[in-house]
Structure formats: C-alpha cells, structure tokens
Amino acid sequence: MATRRSGFSRTQTNRGNSCKNIFNKIRQGQITGVGLTRGSQIPVALLEERDKRAQWQGIPVLLRRLHESSHPNSDLSKIDSMVMELSSLLSMEAMSFVTEERKTPQESVSPNTYTFDLFGGVDLFVEILMRPTLTVQGDLPILSDDLIKDCLSGLYNCCICTEGVTKSLAAREDFVMFLFTLMSNKKVFLPTATLIEDILSVRKEIIQLEKIPTLASLVQSFNQQQLANFCRILSVTISEPDVGVDDKHTLLARSTQQKTSTCTSRAESNQVALLNIPGFIERLCKLATRKVTEAAGASARLELEDWHSWLDNALVLDALMQLAIEEAEQSSTESSDESSLSSSPLRHRLPQSMKIVHEIMYKVEVLYVLCVLLMGRQRNQVHRMLAEFRLIPGLNNLFDKLIWRKQPSGHVLHRQNQNCDCSPEISFKIQFLRLLQSFSDHHENKYLLLSGQELNELSDIYLSANIFEMEALNNTDRNLVCDGKKGLLTRLISVMKKEPIDSSFRFWQARAVESFLRGTPSYADQVFLLRRGLLEHILYCIIDSGCKSHDVLQSYFDLLGELMKFNIDAFKRFNKYVNTEEKFQMFLTQINSSLVDSNMLVRCIVLSLDRFESQTKDMKVVEVFSECRLLSYMAQVENRLFFLFRLISIINVQTLTQENVSCLNTSLVILMLARRRGKLPFYLSALREKEYAEKYPGCLLNNFHNLLRFWQHHYLNKDKDSTCLENSSCIPFTYWKETVSVLLGSGRSSQCAIGTYIDEAYRDLDRDFMEL
C-alpha cells in the first residue's frame, strides 16, 4: 500500500491497518500453509466491508464469486463476464504502468495486480485455463476463445506489474508446457506467445522442446507471422546461458564448468529438435528474405528514428496488435506474405514505415535463430540447408531497399556495449552482420557471398598469379551465389566506407568481412578486397580518422592482419599509404596503445616477415622488403623481443579469456619461429635479462610457464581451436605442441626449457595453476 500522510485521522489509519492485517494474514498463510491462503476463504461480507475502505475495486469479491462458479463440474461458459471484468481492471493498470512511468515493480505500486495475486487470482486463472487437462472423466469443459484471452491477458499484466508472479509461473513446468498447446489456436496465439516469452525469460533452466506435445505438427501449423513470433520464444531455448559463455568470463572458469557438465546441453538438444522438424529452416529462409511492399508516395513515410514515440502511443500499439490478430485469422494456409495481407483495411491505415518496422521486427528474430543454429554443433547441416534455400542471394536482393537503406540525417548511433534500447532497424543491421560473420567464418560456403561475375574475377586472379584455385572456390555451386553484378561482400564494403567513423556498425562490418578471410590465407581473396580499396580505408581509420573506439580499432587491426598476411602486394600498398615517418609512428602508437586489441596484427607481421625472409630469390619480395618500414621495423630482433615481453606480461592464467588468449598464441608464434632458426635459447635468455632489469626475477618466466601448462590443458582437448591455429598460421599443430613441450621441459640442462632460465630461489613451477 502507498505510504499515508501524517494528516490522516486515527480512524483512517486503523482502517488502513485492518486492510494490511488481512494482506499480512493471507501472505503469511501462503508462506506457511497454515491459516488463510486465499481470498475465497474469507466471508463475503467481510470482503465487501473491507473493499470500500481499501479501494480494492471489488477484486476480492469478484475472485470469491469466480472461485465458487468455476469448480470442476461447473459450466465455465457462465464465468466469462467475471473473468473479463477482472482482466479489464488489470489491463488498465498495466497500460498505465508501461506507457507512463515505465517503473520497475520495486519502484511502482500496482494495487490491482497485487490484490489480484494476493487473493489467489493468478492461481485461479491458471486452474481455469488448465481445467480441460485436469478433467479425468465425462465431457471436457469448453473454454471460449475470449475466456482464454482474458485469462492470458490477466496473467501477463500481473507479470508486468507485480514482482514474483513471473517466477512463480515459470516454476510450474506443467503450466509452461500447457501454454505451448494453446498456440495451436490461432485466435489466442499472440497473447499465449507473449506470456510464454515473459515466463521463459526468468527461468533458470532452459525448457526441453522435445517435451512439448506434438512439437513438429504445432510448428508446421503456424503461418509465417506466427512462426516469426515463435522465433522470439525459440531464441531463449536454443541459446546457452550467459554464465561462462561471454568473453568476459575466464577460460579457467569455463574449463571448470565444462568438466562438471559433460552431457549435451538442453540448448544443443533443442537445436537438434528444431532441425528435425520438416521444412523449418526453409520457412525461416523465406521469412528472412521476403520483400516488403514499398509505398508509392513518400508522404506515407515515417522516419524510423521516431519509432519510440510511435510505439509509446497506445492507439498504435493496439493497431499493431490488431494487425497481427487479423493476419492470424486471415492466414489458415502455409504462406502469409505481404500480398495476401493487402486486403486488410487496417494495414492500409498504418504508415508505410510502420509496416517496414513490423516486418523488420520479425526478421530480427528469424536472423537471430539462424545465427545461433549456425554456431551450434549441427553447423554443417544448417549450412547445407541455408545454401539450398538461397538465404544469401535473398538477403542480397534486400540489401539496398531494406537492410541498408540510406540513414536519415541526425541518426543516433548505437555504440558497442552501450546500454540502450535499439530501434528495430539498428537491431536488424547488427543481427544481419552477425549472421554474415557466422556464415562465412571458416566455411567454404563463404563464396556464396559473391556474385557469379565476382567468382570469375577470383579465378582470373589465381590464373594471373599462376596459383591453383582453392578447392572451396572450385566447388561452389554457381546456382546458389548472389544475383547481379555485386554480391553481399562487395555491398558490405561499400557501405562500410560511408559509415560515420565511430559508428558501432563499423565493428560488426569489419568482423563480417574478416570472417570471409579467416582460415588458410587465400591470396586471391586478399587481392579481391585490395582491389576495392579496403586496405587504404582501414589505414585511414587507424591513422588519420581520429577514431577513438577500442572496439572499432580492434576489429580493424584484426581485419588488417588477415588482409596482409603473407601478401607482398598488401605490404607494398601499406608502404605507399604510410609514406612518412610521422604516419608510421602514429601507426605504431595505435598498435602499442592496446596490445590485446592489436596482437593479431603483430602476429601477421611476424609470420609474413618469416616467410618473406625465405623468399630471397623473388625480386618483387626483395624490393618491397627493402622499402617497407613495417617489415624493416619487425626485422629488428629487439622489437620482436619488446612485443614478446609485453604479450606475456599482460596476461596470466586467471585472466585469460576468449578475447585475450590470442596474446598467448602470438607470443608462441614468435618463439616457434625463433626455434625454427635455432634462436630459442637467445629469446629465453633475453626474457630472463629483462626480468632482472625490471627487478622482478622469475616473475615473467614463472607466469609464462603456467600459461603454457594451461595452453596444453585447453587446446589439446579441443579440435576446433587447434585447427584454427594451424590454418591461420600455416604452422602444423604438431609443431605447436612440440614447441610447448620443449618450453615446459623439466631437464635443467635443456637450453630450450623455461625452467633452465629461472634461478632456484625464484622457481615456482610445480604449483597447480587451477589453485593459483
């Protein structure tokens, strides 16, 4: 209850206390199971008398009457009016809660929903909904669609306004599974889906989709709009929980977690269950790529940055909700595309850009589900289906008109890690870029991002360089690539060049392009992108643009590394752009400002230098080598030692994450190349001298020893990571393992073992790194 002013009379205060006493007794009974546990146990006369004083809006009395009229053998058709009246009271409060203050339940007083829950309304609505499943014999009670809608609406509004209701519903496995069966009724689909989404978002445990009765037939019965809405629910069921998965969680913690959980996760099982549904992926591809009818006149347009004010308007919310209901009622067939909805009068009353927002919101959910499936264990199966159903060509056809339409002036940029409500269009762009990244990352299907004409260009590059075509390019089915002259990759590079310098889209754009280059370096792929001015644009962003975003800079360092690796043409272009000492020093300053962000580029330069040094008979290589500031700088052993020392210093076993473990691998690359040339003892001795110069003897080498022990623990049990290391470095993984074993050697006489260079007084090599 709200806090009362000190000016109230004693009588008013006593009345307030009487009402509170009833609340307290019921709440205490619900906790202990002793005494009053629901409002139906209180005499009607007492409820009516207290209702006038407490302004309960008649909710306890209505619930008492509803309880008496909804026993197992009652005619549920007679309770419609009572349920509707209760639901209306809750809806008005929820609408006020959502549209006005937008306060959290802890900050807001919601007397109607609180009273409804306290007097057993939530449990009673659940009982009414589930009555058909609880009837053992006789005729099953029939619930009207309006009755079901009102019950669902009441429960959802309680979830919004009253703390704890959502969690209590989420704890009822039987009720959650029952809700899924309601989704087969198209007239109650939307309120059911909304309630399920709210409930699943607070569950600690992911539900098992295979336990839903007739899951396959249920999903196949959905029209396209319903399937898109269902994807909002699926996103919660197929994604691993955040704990231990995010980059900010240490690899040590994740390793411990994986040891304790060896069985297949529920998220993985749910992904398999969805892939086993006939036609599921094909329908998602159709949803993701279907077109939106453009309005003939520009006067119908509403700029999408105004979407917040439109959606805050209750009339527009009602219009969109009604639109979805009309679509559900119209579409009893499989397809519910834009043309089949053109007869809806409501649809013509909505501004064109609201229709676009409506479609974009669907596509965000669909792309998210496809992205998660692409990153799962069934990745190859998903890839085959996405290629077969032409997802990439379809997205390419939407790129200019929907995905990357010209941004209006004054557009508020969404930056990486910024806590804000993304507009649907911003979310759509980011989800689209994440999908491209997942699609092309270490997979031969990446060439589907190109057009047939661009594939011919790649073949010509191989031919001109007298290099054999990569098998993946040769095997690409040209019937499945992008239509027209430009593929998605080229379009993406074009918009990236026009993006405002600190836009977070640059981060996702660079990640998507980088994923195309990941894996075994491809000379033709690199030249294809070099021809489009990508290297010069990246260098401009790093050196000349004044970009301050660490996320954007990191993505460009990584992309630059993949673009230049082993490619002498790229180093020649680099030297042409970085043509003054001032520019070169600025470039080095950016690299050194955050080695965690730039270490992949450092690794690229070291690897490329090692290869070029062995190509002394190639006059082109010799010429570029003699002129390139970057290669000359890294060729100096003291500079390589400087990077090695810093790389080992900025990490330890306890702080290793998926983001900074690359620093450990880059330090290993430097030492592996030194070992190849018989210089490993020199490097280890230099590290020892650096320790003593810094007056921390043993600190650096003990730390490195522990890091390498963890490296063995982490990589020798993971096939994917080891393959990535081998492909990206062109160093056999066996050599990685051998080098680590040599460095961890126990013999004091070995000149290649770390322990040899640590004085006995400072040795700390035997402690379990899990205990550090």
Strand content: under 5%
Structural shape: elongated
Global mean pLDDT: 82
- Integer-rounded radius of gyration: 32 Å
Number of strands: 0
Distance between the termini: 51 Å
The level of helicity is: 55-70%
Contiguous runs where pLDDT drops below 50 for at least 5 residues: 1-19, 102-108, 243-248, 294-318, 332-343, 408-420
SSE-based structural type: mainly alpha
Given the structure, what is the number of helices?
Answer: 40
GO cellular component, one term: Cul4A-RING E3 ubiquitin ligase complex
Protein name: Short transient receptor potential channel 4-associated protein
InterPro entries: TRPC4AP
Pfam families: DUF3689
Task: Describe the protein's architecture and organization.
The protein has 772 residues and is mainly alpha-helical. The chain is 64% helix and 0% strand. The chain has helices spanning 10-32, 44-54, 59-69, 80-101, 111-118, 121-134, 145-161, 165-170, 173-182, 189-200, 215-221, 224-237, 251-260, 266-275, 280-289, 307-312, 314-330, 345-349, 352-374, 379-388, 391-403, 424-440, 452-464, 471-475, 488-498, 505-517, 523-530, 534-544, 550-564, 568-577, 581-593, 595-613, 619-627, 629-635, 637-649, 661-676, 680-693, 699-715, 719-729, 733-743. InterPro entries: TRPC4AP. One of its GO terms (molecular function) is phosphatase binding. This is Short transient receptor potential channel 4-associated protein.
